[in-house]
Every structure is written in structure tokens, then in C-alpha cells.
Amino acid sequence: MTVKVLISVPKDQLRHLDRLAKASGKSRSKFLIDSALAGGIPQPPARPIDDPRVRRAYEFIVKTRHTWKPGLPTTAMIRQMREHRY
What we know:
This protein has 86 residues and is an all-alpha fold. The protein has helices spanning 11-24, 28-38, 52-64, 74-83.
């Protein structure tokens, strides 16, 4: 038998939970139950630069900025980053 439970969660933390649940292929409820039973929910990095994906993107920008032409559209930069999987 399942029972509904109402909890209050700050919006930013709910978005984080939803991203983690989606990435794991589970519903929000299943993800919360599994995480609670496993000992907790992984926390997001405290600062954006601490996120490994953000760090790789930043390093790519620093490494390749000298090759960009003045006026290069942002979409072209993003395309280059996607091609390099950043």
C-alpha cells in the first residue's frame, strides 16, 4: 500500500532533485525513497565552478580564446564547445 506525503522543499533543491531523478531514470518519489534508504542525496557543488562540467567548459574557453575572431557569435562558440564535448 502506498501513502501520499506532503513535504516542503526549496525550489532550487527541488530542481536539483528532479534533475538527479531524471538522470537516474526514476520518478521523483522512487528517487527520494532510494536515496533516503541508501543514506542520502548527492549535493550540488557549492559554486558553479566546482561543477566538473562547468570547470571543463571554462578551461576550454581559456585554452581556445586566442583562436576566436573578434565578433565570433556566441552560437559559434557554443557549437565548438559541443563538438569538443564541453
